[in-house]
Amino acid sequence: MAKKTGVKKAVKHTAKKAGLPTAIASVVSGFPMIKNVGLRQVHVADTLICNIDGNHGKLIYRGYSIETLAEYSTFEETAYLLLYGNLPTREELAAFTSAMKSERTLPPDVLKSLIRMPRGTMPMDVLQAITSTLAGHDPEIANTTREASVRKAIRLLSKMSTVVAAWSRTREGEEPIPPRDDLSHAANFLFMLTGREPDPEYARVFDVNLILQAEHQFNASTFTCRVVASTRAHLYAAVAAGIGALSGALHGGASNEVIKMLREIGSADRAEEYVRTKLSSGDRVMGMGHAVYKTHDPRALILRDMAIRLAGRPGGDRRWFDLSQAVEKSASEEFRKMGKHGIYPNVDFFTAVVNTALGIAPDLHTPVFTMSRISGWCAHIIEERFAEAQPKPAIYRPLAHYIGPGSTMKSLPYVGIEKRRKGKEN
Ligand SMILES: CC(C)(COP(=O)(O)OP(=O)(O)OC[C@H]1O[C@@H](n2cnc3c(N)ncnc32)[C@H](O)[C@@H]1OP(=O)(O)O)[C@@H](O)C(=O)NCCC(=O)NCCS
Which of 123, 367, 347, 376 lies closest to 225, judged by CA? Predict the structure, then answer.
């Protein structure tokens, strides 16, 4: 009896800690169990890398607010911060930037593999395949020390932008443009894309865009990377898995969907009808809503300001920004009428607008996101692999609640193939 009371207490305690009703916590073999589809509100690890307050729209990387980093930092410095845990001194940043520059070029065999891929291959599939190919070219692939892991992260982080730009040109039948080592990471990417040195304001906007997308704690792709790293698979394997997760329309693929949506709407006066039709038929408005933010996504606010600035430049194209505003206004009105609160534009909504203003093709928005998020992924892979935020490494192994036949562990009788009937339980 005393044991039963103890278990009941433990269930209550566990449910309370996870912010869940006791009803969905249960007991299996004397252990309190919690079922939470989608792992919402469940902490599965400790981390030193990133914190989010979804109710107040706050995001920090290693203690620094996203607003501070967007204003004062650069992508290279932010990547350093994520990987090493502190802002670099001038000398440390110079060494890191120079290491990144020295890793920009793709090995000739890798470039050949990329060029040979069918032109219609989806860009995220190219990134995933080339990431695995690059593993075979990393001289330290078998070196599992932390120092070597950071060097691998720098190689991959640096090369990924070359892969994205090279694929953009190759699929158009154009020659890839070799990287330049006198440009920042952001400016060099825009250069490799077009062959023209970018306007400094464009380069800075793109740099900030990369900072904003670099890290976001245990989102689906980062969690995927950490799960793979927890098995002690190497960094390239973990990143390749993360790329697969990021490609989905409900995650990094959303930005591409936003531009598709804006194109489909075509003009601001059609936004209201489009949004109403979508929502009344149970569809989603892409680029709206977030699993963690129940108020404005702080990254979206910064991007929105940048989108306004770009639209207001002499010769700037206001079309996409104006359209996005019409969609935002109509969606917020419809969500209000439907009694759905806390759904606002997310980071993908405005990266779609900003990237389009920078001349980046819609289906490259998620690859560009990857170029940036790799820095956060690698920081998490290293934190996971070396148990930097918890006492010891642990392989992820959640449970599923089995609801199929034989759920009482009583095995079904085996029916020989000659006696089985289609559509019947055999
Ligand atoms: C990101 C997202 C998956 C997070 O949602 P979530 O926290 O898991 O919440 P749910 O998917 O359970 O949605 C909660 C409710 O809000 C609604 N909702 C959330 N986002 C919505 C959107 N963009 N359009 C329409 N309805 C939305 C859901 O339909 C659901 O309604 P219901 O309770 O009546 O079923 C979701 O907001 C979404 O699909 N957004 C569009 C895709 C996107 O922009 N992804 C990028 C995220 S950075």
Answer: 376
Q: Taking all residues of the chain, what is their mean pLDDT, rounded to a whole number?
A: 92
Residues having CB within 6 Å of any atom of ligand 1: 250, 254, 279, 284-291, 340, 343, 346-348
Calculate how far, in angstroms, residue 290's C-alpha sits from the geometric centre of ligand 1.
Answer: 6
Catalytic annotation, residues: 251, 290, 348
The best mutation among 250, 285, 286 to test binding of ligand 1, ranked by most ligand atoms within 8 Å of the C-beta, falls on 250
pLDDT in tens, 323-373: 999 999 999 999 999 999 999 999 999 999 999 999 999 999 999 999 999
In this prediction, residue 317 has a pLDDT band, given cuts at 50, 70 and 90, of confident
CA dist., res. 40 & res. 272, Å (int): 32
Sign of CA dihedral 253, 334, 344, 316: positive
CA separation for the pair 132, 238 (Å, rounded): 10
The answer to whether the beta carbons of residues 154 and 98 sit under 8 Å apart is: no
Q: Which residues, including other chains, have CB under 8 Å from residue 188's CB and lie 6 or more apart?
A: 104, 161, 179, 180, 181
Global pTM reads 0.90
Query: How many C-beta atoms lie closer than 10 Å to residue 305's C-beta?
Result: 14
Q: How far apart are CA 297 and CA 300, in angstroms?
A: 5
Distances in Å between the alpha carbon of 124 and those of 53, 156, 180, 423? 30, 15, 24, 39
Please give the single-letter amino acid code of residue 421. Answer: R
List, for residues 51-72, the tens digit of each pLDDT value.
Answer: 999 999 999 999 999 999 999 9
